[in-house]
Amino acid sequence: STMMQQRLVLRPPLSEKRKREITEKIVDFIALDMRPINVVRGDGFKEMFEFLEPGYTIPKRDTIMHGLTSKFNTTKEILVKKIQSCTAVSFTTDTWTSIQSEGYMTVTAHFMSEDWQLHSFVLETKVLEESHTATNIKERLSEVMEEFKIPGEKRVAVVHDNAANMVLCTELISNDPSWGNAKGVCCAGHTLQLCINAALKTDPICRCIAAARRLVGHFKKSTKATTALTHKQKQQNVAEHKLIQDVSTRWNSTYFMLERLLEQRWPVTAVLSDPEITKRSERGLDLTTAHWLTAEDTVAVLKPMITLAELLSQDLNASLSATLPMLINMKRRHLVLRNEDSPTTKALKTELAKEIDTRWQLTENIATSIYIQAAVLDPRFKSLSFFDQHEREDAYSTVSDLAESLSTEAAPESDHDSISPAEEGEPEPKKEKQAEISMLMAIDEEEHAEEKDELKMYLADKTKVDSGPLAWWQKNEHRYPKLAKAAKRLHCIPSTSTPSERIFSKAGFIVNKSRSSLLPNNVDKLV
Predict the structure, then answer these.
(1) Where are the alpha helices (DSSP H) in 273-388?
(2) 395 Cβ partners below 8 Å, 6+ apart?
(3) What is the Cα–Cα distance from 516 to 245, expressed in whole angstroms?
(4) One-character DSSP codes across 401-451
(5) Closest CA to 399 of 373, 425, 380
(6) Residue 478: which H helix or E strand, with range?
(7) Per-residue pLDDT of the chain in tens (527 residues, 90 and over written 9)
(8) Strand (E) positions, 5-143?
(9) % helix, strand, coil for the chain, step of 5
(10) 3-state secondary structure (DSSP) of residue 130
(11) Whole-model pTM?
(12) Which residues form a coiled coil (predicted)?
């Protein structure tokens, strides 16, 4: 008490400016760290501020909520301005259910800045009170577009999962003139999940996975078995890793479960065969030799798929352009059947290749698809080596038409902007004189036309791609201005709906048991 009084005497009183700054930092702390607003009522929080700033009075909950609302409105204004300054915006959307059993829909926006930096923002996370029909979802998306003042010509694509209502929703969007030329893009992550799930259901792989789940489940339920496993790991000098239980809706968790079991095979077998640790009735949980061999084959085939999924889910790179080239390379180089392959490996590869062909329609004419358009404008894949000559010409023609149409739309503005101050001040006779000189000194028309053909020059360009397509376009935009507009439009589309799904995890921290009474409007602001 005496020390606290001395501190109060020694310290000058806090200015109003300083008090406002501290309150703003508390608001930031609650928003960024996803803390309950009631944290300001906690005894520990109050004691901390009594020590740090004895002259500061902790604000009430209403004051903090007012600060959060003010910060939300400011952030929203900044975002609206950013979107107005860009040329194209793509979106991802998905729905989730809160702890209160309220259905929310999240919408994220993705666009390219002038300097080719990819930006991602959450536009909205609001309760979808109506049934989740395609029409209702489309209406909500249209409301978001209006609220953030995003015109139809800027809307490029909506990335979504493979649910029937979302597929129908994007079909309605494609037929709605107010959405411009916006397309629906199925999430590559969900599609890959469907492909691999179908392959894992084939025999004997499904029986091997079922046996592995029972085995891992035994160790997860038995403290004695888990402790014994740690001792066996030390004795056998094996990495002290815990076994992984998979989730049936996530194929990568099944891969990690099998991979970890193979790593821990001998310690696990030692625990199960020890009569002092494992009951006689539970010793049959160990995998058979055939199961272990099937697990090895499955892990070997799925391993490159993990890398593929990671590359597709990257937020800050042009993953859409790489989707089909990577899938086709996967089929041609990894899923090709070899003489040394086991029957299980051959069956798994065959099923995966068939599912990829079907779900991505690789056996049909895909030369004009949005994936291929993006691939043409990615200098890593522009040669389209996996296509024949006729398909390549179709793809190049589609991209050329897109670039021309975008340049035509922007032509009046760009023509005006291209006039330099010096030219504006030049008298008419001088301009006419320069035009006459240019006419007399003109080079061969064919050579001039070839210089104008950006696509031919771009395809012949051997400039090295060091750090991704966006960095390449940042350096070479001035050389191919028309194609650059098309590249900016297509490279802002993510290949997965991962951005929306990552928000669900954040929202789970915000709408938790200690904040279950949060109003939906406040949930939107905090997210």
Answers:
(1) 289-312, 320-329, 343-359, 370-376
(2) 367, 368, 372, 373, 375, 376, 384, 387
(3) 29
(4) HHHHHHHHHHHHHHHHHT--HHHHTS-HHHHHHHHHHHHHT---HHHHHHH
(5) 373
(6) none
(7) 666 655 555 667 888 999 999 999 999 998 888 888 888 889 999 999 999 988 899 999 899 999 999 999 999 999 999 999 999 999 999 887 776 778 888 999 999 999 999 999 999 988 888 888 999 999 999 999 999 999 999 999 999 998 999 999 999 999 999 999 999 999 999 999 999 999 999 999 999 999 999 999 999 999 999 999 999 999 999 999 999 999 988 999 999 999 999 999 999 999 999 999 988 888 889 999 999 999 999 999 999 999 999 888 876 666 799 999 999 999 999 999 999 999 999 999 999 999 999 999 888 889 999 999 999 999 999 999 999 999 999 999 999 999 999 988 765 444 444 444 444 455 555 656 665 555 555 444 444 444 448 999 999 999 888 888 999 999 999 999 999 999 999 999 999 887 777 765 666 666 665 555 677 788 888 88
(8) 89-97, 103-112, 118-127
(9) 65, 5, 30
(10) coil
(11) 0.81
(12) none
362, 149 contact by CB (below 8 A) = no
| Burial class of residue 191 (count of CB atoms within 10 Å of its CB; 0-12, 13-18, 19+) | buried
Q: Which residue has the tokens 């279950």?
A: 516
9's tokens: 């005497």
What CA–CA distance (Å, rounded) separates 385 from 392?
Answer: 9
Q: Is 281 exposed, middle or buried (0-12, 13-18, 19+ CB in 10 A)?
A: exposed
- Burial label, 258 (beta-carbon count in 10 A; 0-12, 13-18, 19+): buried
Q: Tokens 């065969």 correspond to what residue?
A: 273
Rounded to the nearest angstrom, the gap between the alpha carbon of residue 313 and the centroid of all alpha carbons in its chain is 5
For 156, 317, 402, 473, the CA distances from 486, given in Å and listed in that order, are 11, 16, 7, 11
The number of CA neighbours under 13 Å toward the Cβ of 199 is: 30
3-class secondary-structure state, position 121: strand
State whether residue 215 is helix, strand or coil: helix
Please tell me the distance from the alpha carbon of residue 157 to that of residue 495, in angstroms, as a whole number.
11
The amino acid at 65: M
Q: How many CB atoms sit inside 10 A of residue 68's CB?
A: 18
